[in-house]
Design goal:
mainly alpha; 0% strand; globular
């Protein structure tokens, strides 16, 4: 069964990332700056988004360049994968909101 995300296309990029659980959240308290982690949100959607992101890393030049740039800048592979998931869900959100089809970007990501 495919999970549903009826809010896709109606929220802004921060809201959709938070809803899916791919937006980093703080663990701060007073003067203590805690670790930033992702999580929460709809686990089913996040799980369903994982494999399309892995496929996009192989076959989508824009997502692949984005992931490679993050890893080259020292981000752990899993952190870069979560960031690619966020980029993919934001792109899908805009596509649905504006009624557009996929177009490979010509500018750097």
């Amino acid at each position: 069964e495919l999970p549903e995300l009826p809010e896709l296309g109606t929220l802004n990029r921060q809201q959709i990332a938070r809803l899916v659980g791919v937006a980093p959240t703080n663990r701060d308290s007073g003067t203590l700056r805690g670790k930033r982690t992702t999580g929460g949100g709809r686990v089913e959607i996040r799980n369903a988004l994982y494999m399309p992101t892995v496929v996009a890393l192989k076959h989508n030049p824009a997502i692949k360049r984005f992931h490679e740039r993050l890893v080259a800048n020292g981000k752990p592979t899993l952190v870069a994968l979560i960031a690619a998931m966020r980029k993919l869900i934001t792109i899908l959100n805009v596509m649905i909101r504006e009624g557009k089809t996929w177009q490979n970007p010509t500018v750097s990501t």
